[in-house]
Amino acid sequence: MLFGRELHPATTVVASTDWIEPLLAGAGGTVGGLVPNQYESYLRIFAPDADPEPIDGDWWSTYRQLFEVVASIGAEHISSPQHAFYAIWEGHGFDSIVRSVAWKQEPIDASERLAREQERARVRSEGHRRAAAIRTELARWPSFDLPNRTRYLFEGSVTAVANVRHPGSDSWCNPDLFWPDDQRWFVATDVDIWSLYVGGTRQLISELAQSVPTRAEPIGLDAMIEMEH
Known about the structure:
By secondary structure, the chain is an alpha+beta fold. 27% of the residues lie in helices and 20% in strands. Strands 1, 2, 3, 4, 5, 6, 7, 8 and 9 form a 9-stranded antiparallel sheet that branches. It has one domain (8-95, 141-218). β7 (186-190) and β8 form a beta hairpin. It is globular.
């Protein structure tokens, strides 16, 4: 599947998402404009302290762990751990990423230069074919609109969050929005931020605050979201 073997396209887009926008009563740029305003308590889970590049390494592993902890604890507070929804912004450019090949600057003869040019052309051509295939598949993928964003929608178990993949890659991809079918909690981040903003019961929020591997603090709906890129 496009976003990983454990995820599949959502089959009930409108019924699964039409509850969200009416509950985003906060002003733009606030927690209440990102997370539905129906929960008892809200928590900001801070991203790991480090430059988030490159995406492969300890930082990215710790970041993924934040989602895994939320999923593990959140699964104990819902009626159906096997059914959750995931949303990813369509503007990430999944269908335009093309690999390139680079070599160290060093003297080479004409035959080696030709071989390298041929290898670059092969990798570039393969990349364009992969991107075209992803573009075709994304065009068929269900999506929905929220203020300022259109997002792809897919579903799977709550714990499948650890196995979301970049289309055409084995690299983990964090969802922008993530919630269980019964809507008892909601997790949101966005392209301009790395922190996770979670809405849920007081008990869930308390458990998460004590369990995540990074700093976490209660937050109000009127709090401004800090840009982190």
